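[step 3/7] fold_predict: job queued, chain A
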Amino acid sequence: MNDKELFMELLENKEKYKVDIDNDYVSFALKEDLQKAEEDYDYEYEDYRFKNYGYELLNEVFQALGIDSDLV
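[step 4/7] structure written:
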């Protein structure tokens, strides 16, 4: 999935996911999976990472929301 598709998935199912924001990445995972991982350290779960972050991701978010935006 590209960043716009990832964002739309997150937006449509925001109650199911937890987002982690770092200066090097932005990712999200199912809250249910994170809870299982807390209980069982061997539990492996899938997380979804945006390819771009910072101002590039913010531009993708604006565009996904239908806001006319450009990187300058």
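[step 5/7] annotate
The mean pLDDT is 93.
The CA atoms of residues 63 and 69 lie 6 Å apart.
exit 0
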